[in-house]
Amino acid sequence: MSSGSPGSGDEQNTARRARIEELRAAEKAKAKRRRTAVIASVAAAAVVAAGLITWAVTDSSGSKSNSAAGSGFCGNVSPGDPNGKQWKTAPAMSIDTAAAYSATLKTSCGDIGIKLDAKAAPTTVNSFVFLAQQEYFNHVKCHRLTTSGIYVLQCGDPTGSGSGGPGYSFADENLKDPAIQGGTYPAGTVAMANSGPNTNGSQFFLVYQASQLSPAYTPFGTITSGMDILAHIAKDGTGTGGADGAPKDSVVINSVPVTKG
């Protein structure tokens, strides 16, 4: 019979087992810390890589642009918010309908040039020029992109909801334009968005690819430069990946200078 109190051997075995389990737990914890450190390093490397990709893209103006998810290649956003001004009536005619007018949408993605047709759509061009001069379009995000059947980028709503406007509306114009009579709006067309006949306000759309539309939307201009920018925005698609929604790129109009002649 071994010396010592009754059960001392069992207690020693229990103590040894406890010590072994303790060592095993410590080793597992150490291994887990090593794995976490490796994962963190990999994640950090991914962030750095994403940062390089984000700022490696250059837009047509030569400035660096943010291509992160949600912003795409459009990173040149001027600070500020839409002024959201409201008017009770459409502006009085102030343009020379016999003159040539052009506008430049200076967007976060690059400049888009537009030739305005004051002769064929005088009220529409007059309103557009008025709003541009009032800086109404400044800091307004283009809120809608369609990529199937209808191929347009829609802008001009300071609320970004698709239902905002300047407080006034005006009648349709130029709906007998031969270019749209076949039910197709040619690529490069700039036209007014509306919610029914004679409900034009501030929202307009840019056609980047020929689109099947009934001749119910006032065409008032033609894109003269920047179609490549629109193509890039369209290629990046919508934020949800669907065929109709807010563009994945953050397309913001910084300003709209207008020139006469």
TrEMBL record:
One Pfam family recorded for the sequence: Pro_isomerase
Start and end residues of each PPIase cyclophilin-type domain: 110-258
Family stated for the protein in its record: Belongs to the cyclophilin-type PPIase family.
EC number: 5.2.1.8
Catalytically driven reaction(s): [protein]-peptidylproline (omega=180) = [protein]-peptidylproline (omega=0)
PROSITE patterns: CSA_PPIASE_2 (PS50072)
Taxonomic path: Bacteria, Bacillati, Actinomycetota, Actinomycetes, Kitasatosporales
A GO MF label: peptidyl-prolyl cis-trans isomerase activity
Transmembrane segment boundaries: 37-57
Group of enzyme by EC: isomerase
InterPro entries assigned: Cyclophilin-like_dom_sf, Cyclophilin-type_PPIase_dom, Cyclophilin_A-like
Keywords tagged on the record: Isomerase, Membrane, Rotamase, Transmembrane, Transmembrane helix
Protein name: Peptidyl-prolyl cis-trans isomerase
UniProt function note: PPIases accelerate the folding of proteins. It catalyzes the cis-trans isomerization of proline imidic peptide bonds in oligopeptides.
